[in-house]
Structure formats: structure tokens, C-alpha cells
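WARN no homologs supplied; continuing
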Amino acid sequence: MASHTRRDDLWVFGYGSLMWRPDFPHLERQFGVVHGFHRAFCVYSHVHRGTRARPGLVLGLDIGGSCKGVAYRVRAADAENVVEYLIQREMVTRVYTPRWVTVRLGDRTVRAHTYTAAHNHVQYAGKLTPEQAADCIRNNNGRSGNNSEYLRNTVTHFEELGIDTAPLLHLERLVAGGNRDL
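OK structure emitted
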């Protein structure tokens, strides 16, 4: 957690399951936007939503564009424990790189801790077609549950936050074989 002072509160930016399941103490939660990165199903999951033999596919923060997500303000006294928790949650196979990003929160910006997809990692999927992504998501399970359920939760929470779900709904239909009811 280089360059974070222990006396300052820590901001954490979530763009996937951290948006609806942070599982860490926080003082506030705000909708925010990061520029220079976009959210994509670009990470093969060997642990949480798949296995090495049958990898699932999860969200990563990839280079280019912008990403709407949730920023959490963590009390300075909790920051070290929260980062330890996030390392255990997000860095299981080191497919993510911890990074500081600037998050626009309405009329101000904050510096936040997040995790971006590591392009040089074997689990980096890169840009897949929707059909390839659906094949990875369909019927795969990992420590944190079913990969199709992860996609459904993502769609549900994006709808609640007002984030465009059209590409995810298309992916969901492909996963379900044309039937939106998973």
C-alpha cells in the first residue's frame, strides 16, 4: 500500500463484485468514474468462478476508456486491515495488479486503491468475443459460486446503479442459450 499515509482515510474503487459485496468496513459509499480504464470480462477465473481445468470468466479493469463504479471511504485506522483483506480476496493468483487511480465523485476527485488486470499473466483473457466469453461463463463453478450467478448479480447491480447493461444482457442470453432466465 505504498504512498498511503496511515493518518488519512483510504478510498477503494470497486468495479465488479466489490460494488455489491465489499465485505469490509467503510464510512461512505459513492458512485464514481475512473478514466483511462474500462471494465471487461477479461480475466480467466481459476479459483472464485472456475478451476484450472474449467476456467470461468470474471471482470477486470483493463486499459483504455472509462469505468463507472463504487468508491468506498475506509477509516484510516481500518485501512491496513482492509487492504490485507483485499489482497487475500483479489490477489489469490496475482492476475490483478494493485494500483492507485483517480476517481471522479461528482464535483471532486479522490485517489483510490483498486486492482487492474495484469496483461502478462496467464489468466489474462484479453478481448474475447461475446460467444467466447459465454463459453467460459456457462456451467463453471468455483470457490465463490457459479459463474452464471456472478454474471446475473453483475447485471442486477448494474441496473440498480444505472450502469448500461445492454452488453451484459446480450452475454447473459448467450450463456443461457437464448433464454434470459438463468
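The chain has four helices and seven strands.
OK
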